[in-house]
Write a structure and sequence with these properties.
4-stranded mixed beta sheet; ribosomal protein; Ribosomal_uL18_bac/plant/anim; ribonucleoprotein; Large ribosomal subunit protein uL18; Ribosomal_uL18_bac-type
């Protein structure tokens, strides 16, 4: 069934399967990283809606593809989620490895009060 899938897609499927098993009713903090930007969404899968979102497209201060920008996005997503009444989430890194910008975003969100 996984024949022909890229390593990224295999990691993504493995990660999402594990999340479904342990998430319960908690919303999902989903991350997408491109070459230039990083995006974060808090998604309530039970209702099928996005609760909060943040990205480097908001507050464009220049350099967007670095760890400082990812840290700022992590702080903004945590503040937006807390304003929407969400304090506990499940971290969905997709197929991205947990290092660099993804790790910086996660640590900033934790420091700003989001629990996962």
């Amino acid at each position: 069934m996984t024949k022909g899938l890229s390593l990224f897609e295999k990691r993504r499927r493995r990660n999402r399967t594990a999340l479904r098993a342990r998430s319960g009713t908690r919303p999902r903090l989903s991350i997408h990283r491109s070459g230039k930007h990083i995006y974060a969404q808090v998604i309530d899968d039970a209702q099928g809606r996005t609760v909060a979102a943040a990205s480097t497209l908001q507050g464009h201060e220049g350099a967007t593809a670095n760890i400082d920008a990812a840290t700022a996005v992590g702080t903004r997503i945590a503040e937006a989620a807390k304003a929407a009444g969400v304090t506990q989430v499940v971290f969905d890194r997709g197929g991205f490895l947990f290092h660099g910008r993804v790790k910086a975003l996660a640590e900033a969100a934790r420091a700003a009060g989001l629990e996962f």
